[in-house]
């Protein structure tokens, strides 16, 4: 017992201090891409050809990138002969709308805004989520599960995952939503009491990811249910998921609120 106590004291405080302070990420981490159209005057399109999910669209006004399709694989960065695309370590990736995830040099990422006052009053201090893996590969699912560890300690924000949708305030969906999972997802959504929210985590749940336009998938959660929060990545870092959740609940400073989505 004494050895256990000594070992615990040596470990110190293991939980991240975020959101009180910004955490340091390892050098290999790939976050929000930065586009510089001035380096691509001719629109050669080599970056778009290298992208496995058609996330890049070169045009007359420069390059546009759909973060909802992006796998953060850096194939575009390697393919670009002019250095017009560069990955950063910015992990604040979550957005409230699908269109807000499409960025360019002149259009920044529309970061997630808080729910309306009424919904935040209901969910802001105690949010229960039912996770649905709609044919995911288990990468996003693993990073969601990591949020329950002592390092991230999701429970300190009043956010927990529950076993039954009838005990939940909303769904957290991963995977491209296969046709075999469509009915299960729809029934799970219907079982959650209103008002409810839906969070799509990962490129698959947003757009279909590497399986986009396959006849066996529906290209993401919003083909079946309305989505309130999108968290890009393949998979997204646990911090990106946590940041999106806290923004949605208005638990971060200077996050504007939006009108609540009508609930059926």
Please give a handful of descriptors for the protein shown.
single chain, 264 residues, alpha/beta, 5-stranded parallel sheet, 8 helices
Topology, pairings included?
Blueprint: H1 2-11, E1 33-35, H2 46-50, E2 56-59, E3 62-66, H3 75-79, E4 85-87, E5 102-104, H4 117-123, E6 127-133, H5 139-146, E7 159-161, E8 170-174, H6 179-191, E9 197-201, H7 203-207, E10 229-231, H8 238-248
Notes on the structure:
The protein is α/β, with parallel strands linked by helices and about 260 residues long. The protein has a domain at about 115-250: Rossmann fold. It contains eight helices and ten strands. The chain is globular, with a radius of gyration of 19 Å.
CATH architecture of the domain at 117-248: 3-Layer(aba) Sandwich
Assigned CATH class of the domain at 117-248: Alpha Beta
How many strands, what sense, and barrel or not for the largest sheet? 5 strands, parallel
Could you tell me the radius of gyration in angstroms? 19 Å
């Amino acid at each position: 017992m004494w050895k256990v106590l000594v070992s615990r004291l040596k470990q110190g405080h293991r939980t991240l201090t975020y959101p009180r302070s910004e955490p340091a990420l390892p050098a290999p981490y790939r976050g929000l891409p930065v586009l510089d159209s001035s380096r691509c005057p001719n629109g050669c399109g080599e970056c778009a050809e290298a992208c496995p999910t058609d996330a890049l669209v070169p045009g007359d006004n420069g390059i546009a990138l759909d973060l909802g399709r992006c796998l953060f694989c850096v194939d575009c960065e390697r393919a670009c002969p002019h250095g017009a695309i560069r990955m950063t370590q910015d992990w604040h990736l979550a957005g409230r709308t699908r269109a807000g995830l499409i960025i360019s040099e002149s259009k920044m990422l529309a970061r997630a805004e808080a729910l309306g006052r009424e919904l935040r009053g209901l969910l802001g201090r105690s949010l229960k989520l039912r996770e649905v893996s709609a044919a995911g590969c288990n990468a996003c699912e693993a990073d969601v599960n990591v949020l329950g560890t002592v390092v991230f300690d999701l429970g300190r924000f009043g956010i927990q995952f529950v076993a039954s949708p009838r005990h939940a305030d909303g769904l957290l969906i991963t995977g491209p939503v296969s046709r075999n999972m469509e009915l299960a997802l729809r029934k799970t959504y219907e079982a959650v009491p209103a008002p409810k929210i839906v969070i799509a985590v990962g490129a698959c749940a947003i757009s279909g990811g590497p399986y986009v336009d396959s006849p066996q998938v529906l290209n993401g959660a919003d083909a079946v249910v309305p989505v309130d929060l999108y968290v890009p990545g393949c998979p997204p870092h646990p911090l990106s998921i946590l940041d999106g959740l806290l923004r949605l609940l208005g638990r971060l400073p200077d996050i504007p609120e939006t009108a609540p989505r009508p609930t059926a």
